[in-house]
Design goal:
Distance between the termini of chain B: 39 Å
Strand content of chain B: under 5%
Chains: A mainly alpha, B mainly alpha, C alpha/beta
Oligomer: heterotrimer
Strand content of chain A: under 5%
Structural class of chain B: mainly alpha
CATH class of the largest domain in chain B: Mainly Alpha
Number of domains of chain B: 2
Number of domains of chain A: 1
Structural class of chain A: mainly alpha
Number of strands of chain B: 5
Largest interface: A-B, 39 and 41 residues
Helix content of chain B: 55-70%
Strand order of the largest sheet of chain B: 4-3-5
Order of helices and strands of chain B: HHHHHHEHHHHHEHHHHHHEEEH
Largest sheet of chain B: 3 strands, antiparallel
Strand order of the largest sheet of chain A: 1-2
């Protein structure tokens, strides 16, 4: 079930990495930033977490659109170092900004009844309702993105630009605008991921990098470019971590890394490679 | 222009030599607090040089070099504190262990491309850090201190110890610089430059891209490991988050090199100096320190991709420490006679994946040599059409040149 | 250039395009009228593709004037230029390999002006494509890909079509089929600027031609007015 949460982390990264061909190192930190935004909305305005998440989504889109259009567009291109640097710097800035603003204490949003309720599956196995809902959300999100990319006009344009950006420019598709839209969509998924993560677990300003590594491992495990693959990747990683978690926290994370490296060694293109 | 710029250039070179000499004699010239600072400077310089070699020259951007720093630290501790080997010996042994671990690391992460490779190295670093936290003999998750006996073996007085450790750090930095210098001037280094400009083209004319990259990746590991050992001597402790600190040994280093100037020899030096100056003057700012550094590196990257050194280079006529080769005058005149000032391209297959072979002699001069082979003192640049060829020639004014030993004239 | 720019579909005057310090196009004058077929010939590296890219708005460092239907389009974004009626069939086809044939065509339709040409016309003209409309464009043969590229451009309902080396790498029979479409395009009043290395073919179909060498126009006129030898001389700069 952890896999559902991990898939949510990963879909945004899959989109930005697949379309714009760069890895946004600040991805995890943006998820954490969104968590803090949700924290503000729920504590200061007293909003229900679900409503808060929905409210955050359009803001997330605008933010992602603006970020790509005005900052990241300048470094998109063949030089991958620039992108790494800029997103790395962004990551540092966000982490430290949150530290200054909120302090280092871990935070969490309460999910109310959903958090503690469980469903009995028989044979003495219980699953948390919230966990199931998260997983369902992950499936729905992946399906929705799949629909968007393959059944709509804008989806075709996004795929065109990710195939060959120079050709797209030549025939009059504004890659600048389409990149911005893609990034906006990616940030919407970030908002959704934050919505679930903020209830599922504690977060603090330094949580970003671990989310990034999780998202990264999920998309490489699942196969670059495959959305449904990242669902599988998320489940695999979740299972690995759950097994490791039986020992202690460190083993939980290590188990994930080890499984990732093993898959990388044996099948580097991932489980469902597109390319 | 010429005489004045020559004077400025040589003046700067002399100043640099004097600075190096001063650094070598530092323990006699400076107080204890300064020595501590300089030791730290030297260690960070080593890390900066190594990262710059990978990211700036070999086109391998890593975000996980702190892995090897930590390994070097832990290996060093293991060899001296746990197994009683001579501490001086334990330092290079630490580097050796880092080298050994870098081999499977390389095999794994080289399966990924560019940005994914960078994060892959980060994953490896995380794994190693967590694993280190599991080693109880090394203090587990909270680490442990370096035993007094080890510390004392570096000198009986504090002054002696600081001096010895400083010279170790200085020595490592000096070796790192020399090795990098000779590597970049060698055949491999020239191949790296060619690869940086046009990877397919470089491969097409015989540069073994994979070999060069692997060599660089593996070559940096021992230096990083030894730096880790020396850092342990400075900090007097090992602990997973400190020895494997991504902030200290990777993030800061990256920012420093970027600000100083990636891909140049002088860049890492300038960047590290800048960092220390910044730290001195902005000591009390805490988290804002990192934010400033990060913001500044973004600004620099957007203004001048070659960093602070790039800005200096706009006024200076040549590098302080010349890495690039220059064509011999005789060759230049000979080929000038054979070709004309215009660029002409001849393709073997129109507009497909075959390449136009061009040799740069100096900007504006091109020749064609279909059978040219790679010459050890120069590099052949391969470009698809004359326009890009000339563009590249204009950019790399003195860097790349010359090709075959028997140049053919342009067909008429 | 004695005719007024307004009466011409495309009027390029004194155009220079820079690549860093190097002039790829050097003070070039070219014009195309509605329904006119103009061909640009020249060796590789002469600047032909650069010229087309400058017209479609993909080159930043441009000096001079490019008028399309009377208004200056230098500095406009490609998106705007395409929407106002110029469409490029890029060198090397440049389709989107992971998209289907139909999706590739639809892209052309969505970026251009809406007009007389629709999907029905494309399917009628290229029956082979109609059969393969759901196939991924990357799996088609060269000739079929070129048809898609052409179809994509036509669906944008351009007033001016720019064709960059459409015969490259294709069998003569296939090229014949492609060029057989030209009269039909001409009949719709669409101007065509064809860039070709194949001198024979382009001179056969053109109303007028320009010869480009190292970024300059060395020869211009009607195909009937010049002999092969004259053209060869100016092609190679001998």
């Amino acid at each position: 079930m952890l896999g559902g949460l991990y898939t949510l982390f990963a879909t945004g990264l899959s989109l930005s990495a697949g379309v714009m061909r760069f890895v946004n190192i600040a991805h995890g930190d943006f998820i954490v930033l969104a968590c803090y935004a949700l924290l503000l909305l729920t504590t200061m305005l007293g909003l229900n977490p679900a409503i808060a998440t929905l409210a955050v989504l359009p803001i997330a889109f605008a933010f992602g659109f603006g970020l790509q259009r005005f900052l990241l567009q300048h470094v998109v291109g063949d030089n991958v170092l620039l992108v790494i640097l800029v997103t790395f710097a962004l990551s540092i800035i966000i982490e430290n900004g949150l530290l200054e603003g909120f302090g280092a204490d871990p935070q969490k949003i309460s999910g109310g009844w959903m958090e503690t309720a469980t469903i009995a599956l028989g044979h003495g196995i219980n699953v948390g309702v919230f966990q199931v809902v998260t997983f369902a959300a992950a499936v729905i999100l992946v399906a929705a993105l799949d629909l968007l990319l393959y059944r709509t006009g804008i989806g075709a344009k996004i795929r065109a630009v990710s195939d060959d950006v120079a050709a797209a420019n030549l025939i009059g598709l504004s890659s600048v605008r389409i990149y911005a839209i893609a990034m906006g969509i990616s940030f919407v998924t970030v908002g959704v991921a934050a919505g679930f993560m903020s209830i599922w677990t504690n977060f603090d300003p330094a949580s970003g990098p671990t989310r990034l590594l999780i998202a990264f491992e999920v998309i490489v495990l699942g196969g670059l470019g495959s959305l449904w693959g990242s669902l599988v990747g998320g489940v695999v990683l979740g299972v690995a971590q759950s097994i490791g978690g039986q020992f202690d926290i460190a083993w939980q994370i290590m188990a994930g890394h080890i499984v990732f490296l093993i898959v990388l060694a044996l099948r580097p293109q991932g489980l469902f490679p597109k390319y | 222009m010429d005489l004045r710029s020559k004077l400025v250039l040589n003046g700067a070179r002399v100043a640099f030599v004097v600075a190096v000499a001063a650094m070598a004699a530092a323990p006699f010239l400076f107080s204890a607090t300064h020595i501590v600072l300089l030791t730290e400077f030297m260690s960070m310089l080593v890390l900066a040089i190594m990262w710059n070699l990978l990211a700036g020259h070999a086109d391998i951007v890593t975000v996980g070099q702190h892995a090897f720093v930590g390994i070097g630290a832990y290996a060093f501790f293991g060899f001296t504190a746990l197994w009683g080997l001579n501490p001086y010996l334990a330092i290079p042994l630490g580097g050796l262990v880092a080298l050994v671990i870098s081999v499977p690391t390389m095999i794994l992460v080289f399966r990924l491309r560019t940005a994914y490779l960078a994060i892959g190295t980060w994953v490896v670093a995380e794994l190693l850090m967590l694993a280190a936290g599991k080693l109880s003999a090394w203090g587990g998750g909270s680490g442990t201190s370096v035993p007094i006996s080890i510390i004392l073996s570096f000198g009986s007085t504090r002054g002696d110890r600081l001096a010895t450790i400083y010279w170790l750090a200085f020595g490592l930095a000096a070796v790192a610089m020399l090795v990098t210098y000779f590597l970049l001037r060698s055949r491999i280094g020239i191949g790296l430059t060619a690869m940086r400009d046009n990877e397919e083209g470089a491969a097409a004319i015989g540069v073994n891209v994979t070999y060069a990259r692997a060599l660089c990746f593996l070559g940096t590991a021992p230096f990083l490991g030894m730096a880790g050992a020396i850092i342990t001597l400075q900090k007097l402790r090992i602990a997973p988050p400190a020895s494997f600190s991504i902030t200290d040994w990777t993030v800061f280093i990256i920012f420093n090199v970027v600000i100083g100037g990636i891909g140049s020899f002088e860049g890492p030096i300038i960047g590290t100096v800048f960092y220390f100056l910044l730290r001195q003057y902005l000591a009390g700012l805490g988290a804002w320190h990192l934010i400033l550094l990060g913001g500044f590196s973004i600004v620099i990257i957007l203004i001048e991709k070659r960093g602070l050194w790039g800005l200096v280079r706009r006024v200076l006529s040549d590098d302080l420490i010349p890495i690039a080769h220059k064509p011999s005058a005789a060759f230049v005149t000979a080929t000038k006679a054979a070709s004309g000032p215009a660029a002409i391209a001849e393709t073997q297959e129109p507009a497909s994946s075959a390449f136009v072979r061009l040799i740069f002699v100096s900007p504006g001069l091109t020749m064609i040599s279909p059978t040219a082979r790679w010459w050890s003192r120069g590099v052949l640049l391969v470009e698809r059409d004359a326009t890009s060829a000339l563009r590249i020639a204009a950019i790399h004014q003195t860097g790349l040149f010359v090709g075959s030993q028997s140049p053919l004239p342009i067909p008429s | 250039m004695t005719t007024t720019a307004a009466s011409l579909l495309l009027a390029v005057e004194g155009l220079s395009v820079f690549n860093d310090k190097f002039r790829a196009i050097d003070h070039v004058d070219i014009s195309v009228g509605a329904g006119e077929i103009v061909s640009i010939i020249g060796a590789n590296g002469a600047g032909k593709s650069t010229l087309l890219k400058a017209i479609i708005g993909q080159d930043d460092r441009v000096e001079g004037k490019i008028s399309f239907a009377g208004s200056d389009i230098v500095g406009q974004a490609t998106e705007t230029i395409v929407a106002s009626g110029i469409m490029l069939v890029p060198e090397g086809r440049r389709l989107f390999p992971s998209l289907t044939v139909e999706e590739n065509l639809r892209l052309g339709w969505s970026v251009g002006r809406k007009g007389a040409i629709g999907f029905a016309d494309v399917w009628r003209q290229f029956p082979i494509l109609a059969e393969r409309r759901m196939q991924k464009a990357g799996s088609l043969s060269g000739g079929q890909q070129q048809m898609v590229a052409l179809g994509r451009a036509l669906l944008a309902n351009p007033r001016l079509l720019l064709c960059d080396e459409i015969s490259l790498g294709l069998a003569p029979k296939v090229v014949n089929e492609l060029y057989a479409l030209v009269p039909d395009i001409k009949r719709r009043g669409i101007g065509i600027l064809i860039v070709e290395q194949d001198i024979e073919r382009s001179l056969t179909v053109a109303d007028r031609f320009y010869c480009l060498l190292e970024g300059k126009v060395t020869l211009a006129g009607r195909p009937g007015d010049v002999t092969r030898d004259v053209v060869m001389k100016h092609y190679f700069g001998l």
